[in-house]
Specification:
The structure holds 2 protein chains of 2 kinds. Chain A is built from 14 helices and no strands. Chain A is mainly α. The longest helix of chain B has about 35 residues. The chains are: A mainly alpha, B mainly alpha. Chains A and B meet through helix 1, helix 2, helix 4, helix 5 and helix 6 of A and helix 2, helix 5, helix 6, helix 7 and helix 8 of B.
Chain lengths: ~300, ~300
């Protein structure tokens, strides 16, 4: 009786394994094919794209897209510079504030922590909206075309603060803090020498979230930056995508074909790869920490 | 209260930067809600613009804009939440039961990749696949004599495309969270079920799925908090300024953004934003109340 049941179970299990493997395989392919399309497009000659369309493998291998991008490298380099700066400074500063806040908010002996937690959390429930925020930063604080406006809004989010709070609570036992206090250390000392070391996985995770946010930001540039030398990377890509199309459409209107001089399609793809390249390159090394941190945070949260 | 804070001076000081951040970034702009009730005059600024009461709201309502935007925003978000979580749970369960460790690691990394890229790159992918002349989809269709489709001028297709792109981008992330929850389920339950003769499908249905309920509810409440905000980046990067598609794809966020950047209609944009915040707030309060009645542990507060 038991063997019959077990046999049927292993049939079902086999069926299930087949379904599982194939579904996951299909979904993984769906996840990666768009990238391959862009990669292939970047290495194709513009003519082959215009003539045959985008393919998974270049029908006519060519580096002209990249040549076009690197013909005028200063803009791209400036965008890289701006983005690297905002990412590094923003992430460091943000982590500093978030870790302190997370440490304080999980301290059971901090009397008003619930009130302050609510103060922070309420901002996710209700807000003034985009327009008043924009007018405040652009007009009242005069932050157009500054690094401040690129860094400030992304410093922290309630989600990251709660995440950090949970990390610290599970990584730093209350007894440790108490004994440090008995030894005479003040709260900041405890934070600096104890908490920062113990909560390192959580700090890495939150740091990665922050960095990713800064690196992929295009929105802040679109609203507050008019100086092309200060465009963030993604906004620069966005601009390029739309400008080339604009020039191309203008050219069609006047009857002049620029496709000989401005390899639009392949340039767009090459530009996309140049801008995204570092992320794709760092990804294999970095995603491990992301997943691990998210996993721990999800269980504890 | 001040005495309490003074006792914990250092902790309060450590929390202060965070409090100041939210004060400036989230609470100050709330003052600007006043714009919603004015016909904004650039000369007069905040207090010099003529007060027009509910006129902006009346216009938004009578033009049908408010209803259309709300329908789109809520509709898309419901699709995102239901399909997104459903697919994530499905994939997490599949992945958790797969035996091959290497396969698991590689596919999980691959599926997490789309979360990393910027939305600008997403728009490049969309362009690469769907543009009329050379898009990958049209290239393949042409091969089968099915003729190219002008996707960028066909509104209804974008309803599906936007949802698909959302799923594509977020599957890896949600899946990781559910996977973490699944690994937290004690093996004893499964062993007991196996002894009782349950096959794998039954084990999943009667053990795994119910135990994921708390995770689902928490994620649900988080998503509902931003149900009126929607995924601005996603929509704006895919649709941009393509007016043909607005009817099917415009959400409150994109409308407000365009009103700010393109038409400079501050009063109207703020009114729409206020409506968004208010509606969202009432919505989440209501849902939280309902959930609290059903099962107090699940509610957010």
């Amino acid at each position: 009786m038991h063997t019959r049941v077990r046999a049927r179970d292993s049939e079902f299990t086999l069926l299930f394994q087949i379904i599982a493997y194939s579904m996951i395989l299909i979904l993984s392919l769906i996840c990666i094919i768009p990238f391959l399309l862009i990669l292939s497009g970047s290495f194709s000659s513009n003519e082959s794209i215009v003539r045959d369309g985008y393919h998974l493998f270049p029908t006519d291998f060519s580096l002209e897209g990249y040549k076009m991008v690197f013909k005028f490298p200063t803009q791209v380099l400036k965008a890289y510079g701006v983005t690297v700066f905002t990412t590094v400074v923003g992430t460091a500063l943000g982590l500093f504030f978030i870790t302190m806040a997370g440490f304080v908010l999980q301290r059971k002996d901090f009397k008003y922590r619930n009130a302050f937690s609510f103060f922070i959390y309420f901002t996710t429930l209700f807000g003034g909206g985009l327009v008043p925020w924009y007018i405040m930063l652009a007009n009242y604080f005069n932050l157009t075309d500054t690094y401040t406006v690129l860094i400030f809004p992304g410093l922290m989010t309630p989600f990251l603060i709660i995440l950090m709070k949970n990390f610290i609570r599970s990584a730093v036992p209350d007894e440790l803090i108490e004994s440090a206090k008995i030894d005479g250390a003040n709260d900041f000392r405890i934070y600096f020498s104890v908490v920062l070391k113990l909560a390192m996985p959580g700090i890495a995770t939150v740091g990665l979230f922050l960095a990713l946010g800064y690196w992929n930001d295009w929105f802040t540039s679109s609203l507050f930056i008019n100086n092309p030398d200060m465009y963030q990377l993604q906004f620069y890509l966005y601009n390029t995508m739309n400008t080339i199309t604009f020039i191309d459409q203008m050219a069609i209107g006047t009857g002049v074909t620029l496709s000989q001089d401005v390899p639009t399609e392949s340039t767009k793809m090459a530009m996309a790869i140049v801008v995204t390249g570092p992320i794709l390159f760092l990804y294999p090394f970095v995603q491990r920490y992301f997943v691990k941190g998210l996993t721990i945070g999800a269980v504890k949260g | 209260m001040l005495k309490e804070l003074n006792k914990n001076k250092i902790m309060f000081l450590m929390l202060l930067p965070t409090l100041i951040f939210f004060l400036i970034n989230s609470y100050f702009p709330m003052v600007g809600i006043y714009y919603a009730f004015t016909r904004y005059d650039f000369e007069g600024g905040l207090f010099g613009s003529p007060f027009v009461g509910l006129e902006n709201f009346k216009f938004l309502w009578q033009s049908g804009m408010l209803l259309k935007l709300t329908t789109n925003t809520v509709g898309y978000n419901l699709a995102f939440i239901i399909l997104g979580n459903g697919l994530a749970i499905f994939c997490a369960i599949l992945l958790s039961e797969i035996r091959g460790k290497v396969f698991k690691k590689i596919t999980q990394s691959v599926m997490f990749l789309p979360y990393f890229i910027s939305f600008v790159l997403l728009s490049v992918i969309a362009y690469n696949m769907f543009n009329y002349e050379s898009g990958f989809v049209n290239t393949v269709l042409k091969r089968f004599e099915a003729g190219p489709i002008d996707i960028y001028n066909t509104p209804w297709i974008w309803v599906f495309l936007i949802i698909i792109f959302f799923l594509w981008k977020n599957l890896g992330y949600s899946m990781v969270i559910y996977l973490a929850a699944i690994t937290g389920i004690s093996d004893e339950y499964y062993e007991a079920a196996r002894i009782d003769g349950a096959n794998i499908f039954q084990r999943i249905w009667y053990i795994t799925v119910p135990m994921l309920k708390p995770t689902f509810v928490i994620l649900l409440l988080f998503s509902l908090g931003s149900i009126m905000k929607g995924q601005f980046d996603l929509f704006y990067q895919l649709i941009g300024n393509n007016g043909v598609l607005y009817n099917a794809t415009d959400i409150i966020d994109t409308y407000v953004y365009r009103s700010l950047k393109v038409t400079f209609d501050i009063g109207m944009a703020t009114a729409a934003g206020l409506y968004q915040s208010l509606f969202g707030f009432i919505l989440i309060m209501t849902v939280n109340y309902i959930i609290r009645k059903v099962n107090e542990d699940y509610a957010l507060f």
